[in-house]
Design a protein that fits this description.
By secondary structure, this protein is of the alpha/beta class. It has five helices and six strands; from the N terminus they run βαβαββαααββ. Helix content is 27%, strand content 17%.
């Protein structure tokens, strides 16, 4: 048996093939939407997945304001941030954020499911979230993905 023929081939940033995908967030639970979008951004759905390379696709999320928050999280869940000043800890309820900045809610959920390193910050730049059904990436000819069919 010739073992030289069975070399593992890794992709790198020059040989990776990226696609553009559109995901509709309407009536999708926020956590499940975020985990599937992070799965697509990482590239784990591809047979050429490498954990140390940005080999995922560019993902466009539309209808971010229509994402579904289940249970009592709509009234109880708080996002915490810090201004950098003494006594500057601030809290925002998720229902207030959904009204004012719905794109931030989806981005925050997806960012939490990506690696916390340089690669995760680079992968996060491949996410584009929009309010409403329109987006500005028609020139890339994105493919519409139904999240209920992906496993």
């Amino acid at each position: 048996m010739d073992t030289l023929k069975y070399k593992t081939k890794f992709v790198n940033k020059h040989t990776v093939q990226k696609r553009w995908l559109v995901v509709d967030a309407e009536n999708q639970p926020l956590g499940r939407l975020a985990s599937m979008v992070a799965f697509l951004l990482r590239g784990k759905h591809k047979p050429s997945y490498s954990p140390h390379v940005d080999c995922g696709d560019n993902v466009i999320v539309i209808n971010a304001e229509k994402v579904k928050i289940t249970g009592s999280k709509l009234l109880q869940k708080e996002l915490v941030y810090y201004t950098g000043y003494p006594g500057g800890q601030r809290f925002n309820k998720i229902n207030h954020l959904l009204k004012t900045k719905p794109t931030f809610v989806v981005e925050h959920a997806v960012r939490g499911m990506l690696p916390k390193n340089r690669l995760g910050r680079r992968i996060f730049k491949n996410l584009h979230v929009y309010i409403g059904p329109e987006h500005k990436h028609q020139a890339q000819q994105p493919i519409v993905i139904n999240l209920n069919e992906i496993k």
